[in-house]
């Protein structure tokens, strides 16, 4: 049956297809297209020439690649270490380590970076205060630590999932054939984890080169493409250069996305068996002990960083004047800072449910309704995270600063800048939607794949039409996925910086960019208070969502398992 | 009350080629025509991959035929989406809604049909009682045994009082003992309600015990449509004879056919046996193992026992003869008189149970 035929006979399907296409077209494809157009304009080509020609700019490109590689290497090792400890060691406090390892997921992107500055910066509490060395964390080393710590949890969760699903009988088979523990690990376990490690490495590479927040806070003289694009747009008002710089980030990002999608994901299917039997054997000895020691050390650093954020929020000048004060919270909660808090929360509360529902709807269309067009839809939706935040932000500026007219009629009003509708909040909400939807799509797709299609057919066979089946059967069954999608949509909407920083107007402030401004001005206390409030709001909202759509009754026991790791992979913050 | 005026299904020249498959390969279903009488229990039987499920799913509306028509009581079904067809399907995986209680599972279809909402509770209770599920209404599917889940799936379909019930291997997930019990229950219930049933299975015992008529399929085509006794005693082809029960096929190069009976000479035995109408000059003689007898003999034996398999209720002998290896099965054998391998035997068969088929 052709798509047209299907669509014509099912109005509900047609409407959802139109909505989804419109959102992705207007919110993602059109702005990215505008960036491409600008980069290919004469000024854009000039800028591209200088990117290749000037040694300063070549340095920036090298910096970016070096940063990406070092974060990817450190982050993959960390992730593997924690996953190894969790799944293969029999040691105390594993649960605690697990929780600590995923804390960075909900913290705002620069909370970590800012805390590192306070601890190890030029006047660092630890570097200067404890050791008395004038260590300077700004630059490659600081960025690597901050980014690796921020992004490794996602890879960690993926690897834990893989390692738990590896069939222990394979280890046992190798052992019974005479291989020792180390041999088993090197010849059986590691090769099967390779796709996971490779995709983790690539993910970290892309995430770290696309990141904007950390280079702005911790970069110092170490300029990378994303921060260069930001300066071009906001400092030099040179949109063409901004477009070129940010696009050069998009090339590796999209390449990795394609590689991931068409190569690694396929291989994973073969290397991991579905139903493990028995329990994996645990490792002992000096190597295991070392792994554990390093994991504990890293966990302590994460705790230290979060403690710094918390205490810093209550001290006058963190690290310098440690007198207790509530002034920072007063500023954030009741002072001028409260505007950003309210705006951010309201926009997240609007964007997250839309992202969750739309994401699940796309997943449903992809998996169940449109076998041919589905993959294209899925691909475009997932581009929402593959496209670097700076590209999307600049694209929005280019596409929606003035209203879009077709034949003299306003089709899309101005969404960005001083004249934007509702103070630019509509534009920001659309960006949040585009950025958080992929997580919901992934969650929805993987949980729909676990629901046997005959469940849908049984419903149809009993007289239900498609929309009834979706409402009464599909939606309740993928509730856990929806929940996961919503959770990450909230976390992401509240903490996103890079596309939004281009879109804020005096009327619409968001916390992430306010934190950046406070850090820039050296008011770390305010920044930390913001971070605390932000995390509290995120956790509260997530809690509320869980309460609201929690399963009632014993049906929960059979609920489709939440695909934690895949969701996270689609949900890393920029 | 059984109403034998609804549920007459007519399939004409149904063909299904899956879109993503090689267009030169044989279609999944290659021209199936069937007339399912109202109230009849008809089983599609055949080896895995022969197109049974595909045929059933086309009737249900989950697959669109490449060509052909499906009519129910004279109405064209192809114009209707699955949810508008007055049929209900029972799935191999049961497909119970895991988030709904047993009661809500059974009530699901009634809630959708506005005209039935009035007596919903009563209908559901009756359905649950008739499937021996009284008192389980509040449970959730995962709190039931496999057999109970199967009953809920049945109750959920029956309660809709459809014109046609469709079953796709509904018993294949149950263990052997339970399967036989469910077979009886399904048969009783279907008789009582008189709902036309189209049943898919690859298990010939299931087909034999349940059906009014059996449709034997092979490679997307129908080999034979007949009652269980006919299919067993008068198979339309060697394939059918082989698939249903056990049989030995002995090549008979020359047959003299007279008055519809064939004269053959096997194991030195002259016999006149029933004959397939399409028989030419040569054919194959089908003998069922239970109609072959073997007697130990010291001289003039026609076979040698090559293997002995003792099964408790019977014993199977593989006997090597001039015509090939013949299977003989003796019911309720005396364990002291079991034959040993290598024993010379005289082989005989009962001509009234044998059947002559064309070579295929
Ligand atoms: N969705 C599908 N796409 C392509 N081929 C299919 C599909 N479903 C079934 N087939 C093929 O059609 C043939 C018949 O399948 P099916 O009707 O399921 O057989 P049965 O139920 O008798 O085992 C098989 O060769 C099978 O591989
Ligand atoms: Mg089948």
Structure description:
The complex is a heterodimer of chains A (574) and B (360). Chain A is an all-alpha fold and 574 residues long. Chain A has helices at 3-9, 11-40, 42-53, 55-88, 94-106, 109-120, 125-130, 140-165, 168-176, 181-210, 213-218, 225-234, 239-271, 286-312, 327-333, 338-369, 374-386, 389-400, 425-449, 453-461, 466-477, 479-495, 511-520, 524-548, 564-569; strands at 315-317, 321-324, 404-406, 409-412. In chain A, the strands form 2 sheets. Chain A has a two-stranded antiparallel ribbon. In chain A, strands 3-4 form a two-stranded antiparallel sheet. In chain A, helix 13 crosses helix 18 (389-400). Chain A is globular. The two termini of chain A are 41 Å apart. Chain B has helices spanning 52-60, 102-112, 120-130, 146-158, 176-193, 204-210, 228-233, 238-243, and strands at 9-16, 29-36, 41-45, 67-72, 75-76, 87-90, 164-168, 196-201, 213-218, 221-226, 248-252, 256-258, 261-266, 269-275, 283-287, 292-296, 303-310, 314-321, 324-331, 344-349, 355-358. Chain B contains 8 helices and 21 strands. The longest helix of chain B has 18 residues, at 176-193. In chain B, the strands form 4 sheets. Chain B has a 6-stranded mixed beta sheet, sandwiched between helices. Chain B has a 6-stranded mixed beta sheet with strand order 11-15-21-14-13-12. In chain B, helix 2 crosses helix 3 and helix 2 (102-112) runs parallel beside helix 4. Chain B is globular. Chain B is 22% helix and 34% strand. By secondary structure, chain B is of the alpha+beta class. At the A-B interface, helix 20 and helix 21 of A face strand 6 and helix 2 of B. The site of adenosine-5'-diphosphate has 12 residues of chain B, from helix 1.
